[in-house]
Amino acid sequence: MNTKEILLQVDFFADLESHELDYIATRFKEVEYASNQYIFEENSIGDTFYILKKGKVEIIRNLTFDGQIYENELSFFEPYNYFGEMALFDNSPRSASVKAVTEVTLLEINKNDFIEVSLKYPSIVMSLIKTISYRMRLTNDKYMSMWNSLLKKNKMAAIGSAASKIVHDIKTPITVIVLTAQLVEKIFPTTNKYSSKIIKQTEILGEMVKEILDFARGEQSHLDKKPYEISFIFHEIEEDVSMIASSKNIELIFDNQTEGEIFLDLSKIKRTVENIIKNAIEAIQHDGKIEVRAIDEDDAIKILISDSGPGIPRDLLPSIFDPFVTSGKQSGTGLGLAISQKVVSDHQGSIKVYNLDKGGACFDITLPKKQIIK
Questions:
Q1: Which CATH class for the 3-121 domain?
Q2: pLDDT (tens place) for every residue of the chain, 374 residues total
Q3: Please, is 368 exposed, middle or buried when counting C-beta atoms within 10 Å of its C-beta (0-12, 13-18, 19+)?
């Protein structure tokens, strides 16, 4: 394409007459840049507007967060996109850097030549202002999205660091507790019922901290998959949460309609279901019902956890499994459901949630029955 034909691809030149385009084309000159070469850098002073004729460029903006500078890609431009238009209106520093991804050919026009063209054809200026306004809104949205992403990354890094220290520091007291419980059991054999619970809960505590650490690092959890019947899993869960439910006069119903066994990591799936049940108990607060039902579905088992609570606020439903999202709880990190989703995903399963027409919410967990080898 020649310069005139390329100008026709640019929105604020597209409505000009042919002779007008002929004139404007003479004001542009063609320049080339090598791959990885910066066309201009953020905070530099510019007076040139560019149209990309050939190749690909990336728009980069630096973000300062917690004393560190992060380089973030705003977008990529391909032929007939343009950039640098703000330099035509003011002498302010560039708000972003532009870097050649491949070898590129650009058409460029400096500020003085553009002013001359604009005075001759004023309609160009109005079209350009509309374009700039749109791009500023788009850039602001992307900037806020990146900022939120950095906040989450920073939080996750802090959690990972804290969890690492906790895992290390907690090993000694856990070991002491377990050894003491075993010693008490040896001296007083009749305490077996209580010492075994102490040992079990301390082991769960260590596993929970390790789970948070794996999540913060983005690592896949180690799964100790074994075959279990759902009836056994439900019995284990009921033992752990029935006292909490009954203390708030909440009826807890377990309904197993499955046959056969399922391969899973018992401790992780138990904690996942128990976390959802405990959330439901907090949502109901007092007097209500929670039903945990399991059904066969082809080569999978579906576990449905429904409650008679107020349901999940509609605006939170799309992000309920995101880290740090929480609602209506007196305490909590907002990590419980995010970790639950990761545990289910590590099992090659799926989890979703929806509000029930009759009120309350329902969590739908689907897990493959057989062990999937990746």
A1: mainly beta
A2: 899 999 988 877 877 888 888 999 999 999 999 999 999 998 888 889 999 999 999 988 876 656 676 667 778 899 998 888 777 777 778 878 999 999 999 999 998 898 888 888 877 777 776 766 666 666 556 655 655 665 566 665 666 665 555 555 566 666 767 777 777 788 888 888 778 878 777 776 767 666 766 666 666 667 889 999 999 999 999 988 998 999 999 999 999 999 889 999 998 999 999 999 999 999 898 899 999 999 999 889 999 999 999 999 888 888 888 876 666 555 555 677 888 898 999 899 999 999 998 889 999 999 998 765 44
A3: middle
Look at the domain 226-368 and name its fold: Heat Shock Protein 90 (3.30.565)
Sorted by where each begins, the domain ranges of the chain are: 3-121, 154-217, 226-368
pTM over cut 0.90:
no
